[in-house]
């Protein structure tokens, strides 16, 4: 039976994925400094094995044969999703994939040395090479998938996401934010004039911050029997669903950055830990994609973790772990701080979408050939001026050189961040519609309602529908910017 | 060219070995408790891939073809060693290997629950099943390799080791020890009557012990850029040559157990770190086998670490890290304690070989059918009485049920421990012959001579000769018990 062959095939692939995932975590958390070269060799070797196995020609035959076998609904979905994944993996010639990977790696390496110096001129040719290949790639994917080129790129990260639906949503959000950001900043100024911002600084030993972080992870539902928290230079959520590895980094003079980072990664971790166990080795049992994943991390970080109700619950824990008894009115202004800035990863939830929309627009222009790399700094600066009223023209490291995505060849990824933020708001709105007292539950440290809803509507759905399908089934409607806009107005507009 | 194909083949295998090795370390040091089942699945999947790739029929063709190609000496050795490894891997039918692995795993699981209860009767049938399969295995290996059955088993762990040479050496050592142990104990008693044993107890925080351990690791040559020290329930040396992972376990009331454990594992680690880089992915570039590996760990633990000269160097470090200023005459009696006991892993260097020789004799009897499992407890007890004058007949968990080796199906492994101890003494004797002031160097914290000699004569030889060949080339003679006996007489006989 071909379905059984596919099942064995998926088990073999998952063993390699498990290894690659844990090796990645180990590299960031435990590897000796001199071990990097052999680690890279080993991971390249395993990735090659994975790619050869995943794209083997007989897999296509098994998929075709399995489609004619008597399968239940879940099995049919599993085969369909495996086919989607197989098509996406095999739609580029092997030598093109290798050429693009090498070009992307070289460009990323160059970027790592050029960025700190702001050496745009030195880096530009590498990015031009990448953009050229991405244009080729998008054309090939588009042809095979029957999609527009940019949609074909997004399809890798979020199956079903289309510019046709995203562009008007982003346009509405952008129009709102360009107007709203100055208002929110003015309101913030007025509040601070009345009650000056009190620094949340002190001396917070790492061990105490870690204990606080773990207490909050457990409180919001993270299963410490199937996961852990450690330290790395760049926080991430890695590992495997049965052993989710969260990391953070600590500074001993502030506790909020590490704690909010932990809450963010915990959101990713909850999704992974609660995927359906039966289908764990099939693509249909894995997390859907980048924007739904980000909706889960942002749900915990922003909808829960920056919600005043959460701090009613959390402040006593902060006090008992760190010995600091902050007043709510001193803490919330930090949690809700709005600030115009050039750097996306440092942005707050109000200004962040403008950073994303700028990139979304520019990468479509680059892909379509309406914009060339040489003209990127000016184009970037023009939009940065229009959207946020600031300029990075004199420091490209704070402009188009700030992110790893383009240097490494990842185009079509950026929208996921803001789509995730909007989906999180839409999910929260759905929950609070049927549970009007949700904030009281959260203030009491009871996360049952939000977790039960997300388990049933997001986590257990895994990849059993496209990104828009999962959102529609969960919330009863398509992506609707009204919820995120209402959320920002409530939190920052009064 | 077939040699190039074999080279690529070895690179692919080393990637899987790297993954399996790091996954093993991660399991012992970082994995979440609930992650074990999926980890086992993943490692079984990768092991299967490894076995299929390593035993693929075309590898035999490439080896045959490579032997006709123009190769330099190192390449010829590499092909010969790969062939040896290929033959050992393919000499059993695949379904027998799987059957034996499953039987061994079930028996080991049963052993883990039966041992604490001393339930020999409950465990015996499982061991009988294992012994039956090991007899079959040995017969098949013997047939194909043209060796005696027990030699064919040892060949997996130490290529070239033969009962023909080991049995008389062990007989000589046994005769010496049965006579020497009571003498050494009497001498110890007399010394203690003059100067009572002073407990080395105190409160030693883990972080301070770790800092002391790392200082000693570095002192004896461990490269912290290519390795690290962490914690696990059972100390081990794992990882890969470019990233050697040592572990230990600490108790806060004593520092000596952890420190001596660290020195032991550091010996293993030095060997791994200093293998020849060019051949790292070929079997010829890997550590030779269990007894040479153990000779390196015991060289550092016993020849260096229990040498009074070492403590001239180490005591000030103990004082500065732990704040305890021990007198040499109070410390050495602990480092050199001799004690009759039932448990091999707790034994000192004087009594340890008798535990090994007892097992060496019994497992040959079991293999040859001269002894059946049902008669094992009595046979064990008889030898334990003859060799050490103690009995475990009432507590089989302290007798034939104490080790994991037999329950898991590893026969022919035990001799490696004592062969390693003897080889370490023989290596030390060779060095001190040409460097009579070696103890002064060590007392001064200068490990250059011992490390240079071992690098040239052991570490860089990797698997480019059989176990006896490497020893002969390094020391100028075959395994000679006189060195180990002289070492024990000097350290414990006066
Ligand atoms: Zn995230
Ligand atoms: Zn050892």
TrEMBL record, chains A, B:
Cross-referenced InterPro entries: Peptidase_M32_Taq
Gene3D superfamilies: 1.10.1370.30
Membrane-spanning parts: none
Keyword Hydrolase in record: yes
Signal peptide location: none
One Pfam family hit: Peptidase_M32
The UniProt record lists the keyword Metal-binding: yes
Catalytic activities: Release of a C-terminal amino acid with broad specificity, except for -Pro
GO MF assignments: carboxypeptidase activity
Keywords (A to Z) from UniProt: Carboxypeptidase, Hydrolase, Metal-binding, Metalloprotease, Protease
Lineage top rank: taxon: Bacteria
Function of the molecule: Broad specificity carboxypetidase that releases amino acids sequentially from the C-terminus, including neutral, aromatic, polar and basic residues.
Family, similarity comment: Belongs to the peptidase M32 family.
Protein's name according to its UniProt entry: Metal-dependent carboxypeptidase
């Amino acid at each position: 039976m071909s379905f059984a062959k596919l099942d064995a095939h998926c088990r073999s692939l998952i063993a390699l994925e498990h290894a690659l995932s844990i090796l990645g975590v180990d590299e960031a958390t435990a590897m000796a400094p001199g071990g990097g070269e052999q680690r890279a060799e080993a991971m390249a070797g395993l990735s090659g094995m994975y790619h050869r196995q995943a794209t083997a020609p007989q897999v296509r035959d098994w998929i075709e044969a399995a489609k004619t076998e008597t399968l239940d609904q879940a099995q049919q979905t599993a085969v369909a999703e495996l086919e989607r994944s197989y098509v996406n993996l095999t739609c580029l010639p092997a030598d093109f994939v290798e050429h693009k990977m090498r070009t992307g790696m070289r460009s990323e390496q160059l970027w790592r040395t050029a960025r700190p110096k702001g050496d745009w001129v030195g880096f530009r040719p590498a990015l031009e090479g990448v953009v050229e290949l991405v244009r080729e790639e998008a054309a090939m994917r588009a042809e095979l998938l029957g999609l527009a080129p940019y949609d074909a790129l997004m399809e890798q990260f979020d199956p079903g996401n289309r510019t046709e639906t995203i562009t008007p949503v982003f346009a509405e959000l952008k129009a709102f934010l360009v107007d709203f950001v100055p208002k929110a900043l003015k309101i913030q100024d007025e509040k601070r004039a009345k009650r000056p911002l009190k620094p949340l600084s002190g001396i917070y030993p790492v061990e105490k911050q870690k204990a606080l972080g773990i207490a909050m992870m457990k409180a919001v539902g993270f299963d410490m029997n199937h996961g852990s928290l450690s330290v790395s230079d760049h926080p991430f959520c890695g590992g495997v669903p049965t052993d989710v590895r969260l990391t953070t980094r600590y500074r001993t003079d502030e506790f909020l950055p590490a704690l909010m980072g932990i809450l963010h990664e915990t959101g990713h971790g909850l999704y992974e830990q609660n995927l359906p166990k039966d289908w764990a080795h099939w693509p249909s049992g894995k997390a859907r994609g980048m924007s739904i994943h980000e909706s889960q991390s942002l749900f915990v970080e922003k909808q829960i973790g920056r919600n005043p109700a959460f701090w009613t619950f959390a402040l006593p824990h902060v006090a008992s772990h760190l010995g600091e008894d902050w007043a709510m009115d001193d803490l919330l202004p930090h949690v809700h701080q709005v600030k115009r800035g050039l750097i996306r990863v440092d942005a707050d939830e109000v200004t962040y979408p403008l950073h994303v929309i700028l990139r979304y627009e520019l990468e479509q222009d680059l892909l379509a050939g309406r914009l060339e790399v040489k003209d990127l700094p000016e184009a970037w600066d023009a939009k940065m001026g229009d959207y946020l009223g600031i300029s990075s023209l004199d420091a490209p490291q704070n402009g188009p050189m700030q992110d790893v995505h383009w240097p490494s060849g990842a185009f079509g990824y950026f929208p996921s961040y803001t789509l995730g933020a909007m989906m999180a708001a839409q999910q929260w709105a759905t929950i609070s519609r049927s549970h009007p007292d949700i904030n009281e539950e959260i203030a009491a440290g009871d996360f049952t309602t939000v977790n039960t809803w997300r388990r049933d509507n997001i986590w257990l759905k895994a990849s059993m529908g496209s990104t828009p399908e999962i959102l529609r089934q969960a919330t009863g409607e398509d992506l609707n910017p009204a919820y995120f806009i209402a959320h920002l107005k409530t939190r920052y507009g009064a």
